[in-house]
Structures are given as C-alpha cells and as structure tokens.
C-alpha cells in the first residue's frame, strides 16, 4: 500500500488524484496548496505526486532527493533550467516525469517516432496542433513538445536542432524545411486534444488523440507512483511505467 502525498491537491488534477489514490487502495498522506511548506508532505509520504506549476518542480525534486522519496512530476511548461534541476535531483531520487500520463498519448508518441523515421523530413512537414481549456497557462502543451521531440528523434536529430516554428503571424516567410511546427488553441473546457500532421505534396497523415476526462491522467499518475515505490534513483518516463521500452 503506497503512501502518497499530493502537491496541488486543490487543483483540477489534485482533486481527481486524491480520489484515484483511494480507488487504487493507496494511502493519501495529505496535500499542499500554493504557499504551503512541502517538507512535511514529503517526510510523511513514500511518493509525492506534483501537478502544480513548472516553477515548483525544482524545489519538489530537491526535497525528494534530500529525503529519499519518490516524485511523480506532471507539471508542464518547465524551462530548460527547471528540467536540468529535475534531472540532477533524479541522480539521488526516483522521479517519473511525463508530459502526459494517459496511456493512449504515450502510444501515439511512440508511433510518431516510428512514422517520422520512415517519412523523409524534406518531404513531410511535421505540424502539431493542440487545444486545451481556457485556463491553461503554458503553450505549446508539454504533450505537443513531447510529440515534437519524438518526431525529431525519429529523424535522428533533436527538436532544438530541427528548429521549432510556432505562433506564425504576419509576413512569416516560407515554412522551413525539416522544422517542426506548433499551433496552440485555447478555449472552453477542452481537456486535451493533440494532432500530429505529416503534410507532403500528395498526401497527409494525421494522428489525433483526444482526452475527454482528466481521470485518464490521474489513474496514470497513481499507477506511476505505485510503480516508483522502491525503485533506485533515476529519471523515468511513462514508457518505463507502461513497459513500452
Ligand atoms: N502530465 C499530465 O498528464 C498532465 C499535466 N497537467 C499539468 O499539471 C499542472 C496542473 O494542472 P491543473 O491541475 O489543470 O492546474 P490547476 O491550476 O487547476 O491546479 C494547480 C494547483 O496547484 C496549486 N499550486 C501552485 N503552486 C503550488 C505549489 N508550489 N505547491 C502546492 N500547490 C501549488 C495551485 O494553486 P493556485 O490556484 O493558488 O495557484 C492549484 O491549486 C499544469 O502544469 C498542467 O499542464 C495537467 C493535466 C495532465
Ligand atoms: O494543462 C492541461 O490541462 C494539460 N497539460 C498537459 C500538457 O501540457 O500536455 C497534459 C494534458 O494535455 C492536459
């Protein structure tokens, strides 16, 4: 029975996570909100699940490392420096960090990498379109960036080297060859929609994933917390949890 704490327990995800911890037969040790000191939560938990804000991730990861606790990190929009801090903490604590905890999205990302490896980047323009609820504060979504990284990996490069095109407006010039495009839509209460498009002169391939219920993320995160208990330090992904390699 895993002892699980929830950072951001009053949030959209936090409330559902509390329900899912109980449904999985785990023990809920407590939760924090903005302004609370998270140390006590980490002390009494085996694993803390953090769906709060990107800026909280380094401090939570450092506490996990100091106290030898597991961390399941779901916040999106981390800067390169925040991701580096999480990676450093993961040399001393087991951390699962995933852009999206829904099983189906992770399968789509795995397929995206395979498709990108088979489709020449000079002919098939990769464009990622995502839509989320009006309250979302970061763009493009973490999932869209993970899809872009998968496309780049499939092409034997990195997203940084391939180049990102986003926020096109005005006289943008022609699309760059081999770059990866992002478009973010915001509105209403959309839980999460992602489409990866490979567009060539004579054909289009589109992979779409739609989440209708945040519970898909919450059950995945609790599953990750149970999987993480007792693991050695390391930065794990949802692929590791799902056994996707
Ligand atoms: N990886 C995945 O599968 C998913 C990731 N997400 C990501 O999770 C994050 C949260 O999403 P969502 O639940 O919709 O957002 P919400 O804004 O509904 O919830 C976040 C909660 O965390 C609180 N909070 C902020 N900072 C801290 C802190 N340092 N310690 C404790 N609590 C804090 C907020 O308080 P306050 O309201 O006072 O700011 C709020 O209650 C986002 O980054 C989102 O992109 C969301 C869904 C799935
Ligand atoms: O903020 C959200 O809601 C979501 N955020 C994650 C992301 O940025 O990809 C996951 C999911 O799309 C919902």
Task: Present the secondary structure layout.
Layout: E1 3-7, H1 12-23, E2 27-32, H2 39-43, E3 47-50, H3 57-67, E4 70-73, H4 80-89, E5 94-97, H5 103-118, E6 125-132, H6 142-154, H7 159-162, E7 164-166, E8 180-186, E9 192-199, E10 204-211, H8 215-228, E11 234-236, H9 238-242
Helix pairs in contact: 1-8, 3-4, 5-6
The structure holds NADPH dihydro-nicotinamide-adenine-dinucleotide phosphate and ligand LZUJQKHR.
What does this structure look like?
37% of the residues lie in helices and 24% in strands. It is of the alpha/beta class. The protein has two domains: 3-101 and 214-242, NAD(P)-binding Rossmann-like Domain (Rossmann fold), CATH 3.40.50.720; 103-211, Dihydrodipicolinate Reductase, domain 2, CATH 3.30.360.10. The chain has a six-stranded parallel β-sheet with strand order 2-1-3-4-5-11, with helices on both faces. β4, α4 (80-89) and β5 form a beta-alpha-beta unit. The longest helix has 16 residues, at 103-118. The model has no long low-confidence stretch (mean pLDDT 97). NADPH dihydro-nicotinamide-adenine-dinucleotide phosphate (NDP) is lined by residues 7-8, 10-14, 32-34, 36, 51-53, 56, 74-77, 98-101, 217.
Quick summary:
With 245 residues, the protein is an alpha/beta fold.
Arithmetic mean pLDDT: 97
Strand content: 15-25%
Name the helix and strand elements from N-terminus to C-terminus, one letter apiece: EHEHEHEHEHEHHEEEEHEH
Terminal-residue CA separation: 26 Å
Q: What share of the residues lie within helices? A: 25-40%
* Low-pLDDT sequence parts: none
